[in-house]
Specification:
Length: about 80
């Protein structure tokens, strides 16, 4: 069971990182579609949200990189020093 745990950890880490990145990009794509469908009259409103969400995406990317690095270090520590 422990071997399966060690094999599944990198996969769960990569799926978690992919899902977090994909959710933000999908939201930006949907809002960009609203800009074109609303036209010049109301298209500026989604544009403001896209600008704010882009800043949020940058903050989330920094946080995800930190979490990814920390979990990778923890997993490697567990692999090199089992039984602690």
């Amino acid at each position: 069971i422990e071997l399966i745990s060690y094999l599944v950890r990198p996969m769960s880490l990569s799926v978690r990182l992919f899902a977090n990145m994909m959710a933000g990009h999908t939201l930006l794509k949907v809002l960009a579609g609203f800009i074109f469908s609303l036209g010049l009259a109301l298209g500026w409103l989604p544009l403001i949200f896209i600008t704010a969400l882009t800043g949020l995406e940058i903050i989330i990317a920094i946080l995800q990189a930190y979490v990814f690095a920390m979990l990778t270090c923890i997993y490697l520590n567990d692999a090199y020093h089992p039984g602690h």
